Amino acid sequence: MSNKILSIEGLRKHFPVKNVWGTDIALVKALDGVDLEIEEGKTFGIVGESGCGKTTLMRTLLRLVEPTSGSVVLSDEITQNQFLSNNLEELTNEELRSFRRQIGVVFQDPMGALNPRMLIKDIVSEPLVIHGKTENMRDRVIELLNNVGLGEEHLYRYPHEFSGGQRQRIVIARALALEPKILVLDEPTSALDVSVQAQILNLLNDLQEKYNLTYIFISHDLSVIEYMCDRLAVMYLGRVVEEADTEELFTNPQHPYTKALLSATPNFNKDKEKIMILGDVPSPITYLDESKAKLATEITEQERLEIKSIEGKGLDYIVRSSLNEVLPLKEVGPSHYARVK
């Protein structure tokens, strides 16, 4: 068993919704009690549809947004016993600056993450300048570019002169500049062609082995997740509904939402069971007025119509309203947790 590098305990992030007079009338529960443990040197995957809270979780981990409650506990590996507290939310500005050297980020859109007016040498060296590590900077930048399959000839070019895959390599080089222990990868291949995706994923695997990096890999592409991750959490409406080792989760899913997600993955097996999700995605808004507060757990009229339209076609389905009931996360197998009855 490898060491924990990061623990997330009861993490909640609620955004207030105001009416025209500026009074709070509701909360958007972007994260609603997330508990996770990230192991050192492994890849932890977070998967779910748009709006389930994946990116809010990433932003809270980096303390770009403050959590409403709960905590992110850092290991001594990250704090190096130099911080007054191991809780991320209690770090001083100076400690937070030191923590951010230990954690790199690769964003979804490489073009949006690069300043179009900066040369590549300045983009990659920017973290080194900010943190005062300017000794032998040119050699360090060339080394970083070589690590990601680029070279010295790319130093004096601008981002628009590169392909999407090359831009993502530049983003990865910049994320590695301060020799972080953790890389947060927010859908790093979703904006790329399939052939380029494979190159970037293989590059990430090579870098992980070379530098003993820990990856937190956020994606909604299950085939990428299956290839990359050692362990996996499935999120739905701000909660983790299932968590297990990747192989276990793919072969033995327990939560109905996980089963539906896996059935939607493209596959050459024509006999593979298809499970449809019927109904609209429920709103994550919780009204402070009790009469409006409850998420509907009864079948809606629209869901009834959708069920009627697929009757007799031999299709399995789950309805969204049935997923709204909040069940406790319990152990259903060795290191396998799910919100099931």
Describe what this molecule looks like in 3D.
α5 (120-130) crosses α6 (137-147), α5 (120-130) runs parallel beside α7 and α7 (164-175) packs parallel to α8. A hairpin with a 5-residue loop joins β1 and β2. The longest helix has 18 residues, at 194-211. It contains 14 helices and 14 strands. The protein is an alpha/beta fold and 341 residues long. It is 34% helix and 26% strand.
Low-confidence stretches: none
Inertia-based shape: globular
Average pLDDT reading: 88
How many separate helices?
A: 14
Strand residues, percent: 25-35%
Radius of gyration: 22 Å
Distance between the termini: 30 Å
| Helix and strand composition category | alpha/beta
Number of strands: 14
Q: Helices and strands, in N-to-C order?
A: EEEHEHHEHHHHEHEHEEHHEEHHEHEE
Q: Describe the sheet with the most strands.
A: 8 strands, mixed
Strands, helices and their partners?
Blueprint: E1 4-18, E2 24-39, E3 43-47, H1 54-61, E4 69-74, H2 76-79, H3 93-101, E5 103-106, H4 110-113, H5 120-130, H6 137-147, H7 164-175, E6 182-186, H8 194-211, E7 214-219, H9 222-228, E8 231-236, E9 239-245, H10 246-251, H11 256-263, E10 275-278, E11 285-287, H12 290-293, H13 301-310, E12 316-319, H14 320-323, E13 330-333, E14 336-338
Helix pairs in contact: 5-6, 5-7, 6-7, 7-8
